[in-house]
Amino acid sequence: MVESYRPNEDQGRERPYQEKTKADWRAEFERNYRSYYKGDFDRPNEDGTCTRVCAYELILDPLDQVERHSLLTVFALRAGQSGYKQALGPLVLPNVGYRDREGSRPLTAVQFFFEKPASPAGETTSQTGAIR
User: Fold this and answer.
1) Is 65 buried (19+), middle (13-18) or exposed (0-12) by CB count in 10 A?
2) SS3 state at 1
3) For 34-48, how does the pLDDT look when each residue is reduced to its tens digit (9 = 90+)?
4) What is the pTM of this model?
5) Which of 3, 40, 41, 118 could form a disulfide with 54 if both were Cys (CB 3.0 to 4.6 A apart)?
6) How far apart (Å, rounded) are the C-alpha atoms in residues 122 and 132?
7) CA Rg, the chain, in Å?
8) How many CB atoms lie within 10 A of CB 33?
9) CA distances to 23, 53, 83, 130 from 2, in Å
10) How many Cβ atoms sit within 10 Å of the Cβ of residue 114?
């Protein structure tokens, strides 16, 4: 774990700062994207072990570039940063609903399927030092 110092702007003095661990990134991802989580299942592997596969669904306006970036791109980058690996290709379902009452702004659902990273025994978060 790398430690450095950053100024505490509230009090004008320095305080210890620790970079996030893999466990921190994973906990943050799971907390921030909890509402998009749809479920999971265990996929058996050839060696007899199981891999947990998690499903997430994002619903967005495909015509809105900002929403596409903030939802799709940032979501996928944060998942990778958190140690998730793509288990299946994304599933795109167009016209799942409408943003407006007139039906002129169709929404698209995009489903992602990720292999959930295993938490190594004894892995801790930098904030609490709690073992995950």
Assistant:
1) exposed
2) coil
3) 999 999 999 999 999
4) 0.73
5) 40
6) 7
7) 19
8) 19
9) 15, 31, 19, 17
10) 22
